[in-house]
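Handout, section B. The chain below has 112 residues.
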Amino acid sequence: MAIVALLTGAGLVFLAMWIAGLISPRSFNPQKGEAYECGIPTRGESMAQFKVGYYLFAILFLMFDVETVFLYPWAVRMQQLGTQGLTAIAVFFGVLVLGLVYAWRKGALEWK
């Protein structure tokens, strides 16, 4: 049953992309291919490469930021959850700390 739903979903996506390709306008203008930055013409290469460390640092920040969002509902309902809630958040913090230790050991937090 799950395979049918997966295939149906994939088929609908491909059908939508095919129909969009059929009905979309096809006009090419060389100006459309140029990089645009606030109306100022670009100088030099428009595709600048960034160190992967920037992306890794941003992803780690988002990961820990999102995890702190999950702490709020737990903190609000702490007394109602009791021991089971405390155990669940301890496991959550354990996984969080393991991820931090892993990133630290891999050198993801070092700014080189």
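Note. The chain is about 70% helix and 0% strand. Compare this with the example in section A.
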